[in-house]
Design brief:
Helices cover 33% and strands 26% of the residues. It contains 9 helices and 14 strands. The strands form 2 sheets. Strands 8-9-10-7-11-12-13-14 form an 8-stranded mixed β-sheet, with helices on one face. A 6-stranded parallel β-sheet has the order 3-2-1-4-5-6, sandwiched between helices. α4 packs parallel to α5, α5 packs antiparallel against α9 and α7 packs across α9. The relative contact order is 0.16.
Length: 329
């Protein structure tokens, strides 16, 4: 760090990276220092839009830039593990878009490397840091709905069917589970604080060979179930319901980026709204900056164990529905 500022690099200036760059403008002590793309023209255009002083045409050049403290990785899923490894091996802290890797084995390997090199590493599951989720945590910990028994959720968006895009390409680890279903699973894990011992799932495979609809049931302990569906074909309600013995909570659509939740009990309904400072990405950036300044190697809010747990569940679901990528070892 220089002058108390955490200097960021962006690897992969795609759609999601634009949202990240916009959010970083409202985070104190964070500055964008460089952006990298395999396309120099693309890197230049991104740097010009956000007044980034340096753009480069290779990921290796960004990873070796001594003026960069931490790299935000927003490349396609398949390349996350190798991109994270490149950054860690060049002594860069890392915030990597979800899923952190494609398999739990890959995640274990890079978490181990981050520990060996004493570098901060976090999966960018931004929902965990949104203001409304602090309200949800308070309700749950205070027993507002009693003991949790059931969760139901949907994440469905009728996507533009571009068979050359990453969502539908198996060679890029496309498919709805890794892209959307990860949110249904990760929030179920967050609510229960544990990993399911029973995982059942079904899927509809698309013509390109990726999962386009996944419906799953996760059983936690003896008496808690989370049921969810994610899909690329139709628009669904996209809310998340948590049912307890004394009431229920609804995280309003779109639950993974919601600013609103409702608590319903015998005493009536209470709806709470927590708006973003910018677009929602700023809260995970706040966390990374805070952790790096404190010398922490992982976030207490989004620890490595949580990422690994979600990856193991997705591995189990993919095994059940028969989704395996050709590049997997």
């Amino acid at each position: 760090m220089r002058d108390g500022h955490v200097r960021w690099g962006i690897m992969g200036p795609g759609r999601i990276a634009h949202k990240f760059a916009e959010a970083l403008t409202v985070v104190d002590g964070a500055v964008l220092g460089a952006v990298a793309s395999r396309s120099t023209d693309r890197a230049h255009a991104f740097a010009s839009k956000y007044s980034i002083p340096r753009h480069v045409g290779s990921y290796e050049e960004l990873a070796s830039d001594k003026d960069i403290d931490v790299v935000y990785i927003a490349t396609p899923h398949r390349f996350h593990a190798e991109n994270v490894r490149l950054c860690l091996e060049n002594d860069k802290a890392v915030l990597c878009e979800k899923p952190l890797t494609v398999t739990a084995g890959e995640t274990e390997a890079i978490v181990r490397l981050a520990g060996q090199r004493k570098l901060f590493l976090m999966e960018a599951l931004w929902s965990r840091f949104l203001p409304i989720y602090e309200v949800l945590r308070e309700w749950l910990e205070n027993g507002a709905i009693g003991a949790v028994r059931l969760m139901t959720s949907t994440f469905g968006i009728q996507i533009h069917r571009d068979e050359t895009g990453r969502l539908l390409k198996p060679e890029l680890a496309g498919g709805v589970l890794l892209d959307m279903g990860i949110y249904n699973i990760a929030i179920s894990q967050w609510v229960t604080g544990e990993e399911p011992h029973v995982v059942d799932a079904q899927c509809v495979m698309g013509p390109t060979g990726v999962d386009e609809l996944v419906s799953a049931s996760l059983k936690y302990g003896s008496d808690v179930v989370s049921q969810f569906t994610c899909n690329f074909g139709v628009n669904t309600a996209n809310d998340f319901w948590i049912y307890g013995t004394r009431g229920h909570i609804r995280i309003h659509p779109r639950f993974w980026q919601s600013t609103q939740a409702t608590l319903s009990t015998d005493q009536g309904d209470e709806t709470v709204v927590r708006d973003f400072r910018k677009n929602g990405f700023e809260y995970q950036i706040d966390e990374v900056v805070s952790c790096i300044r404190a010398g922490q190697l992982e976030s207490p809010v989004m620890p490595h164990a949580a990422t690994l747990s979600t990856m193991r569940v997705m591995d189990r679901i993919r095994s059940t529905i028969g989704v395996r990528y050709a590049f997997e070892s």
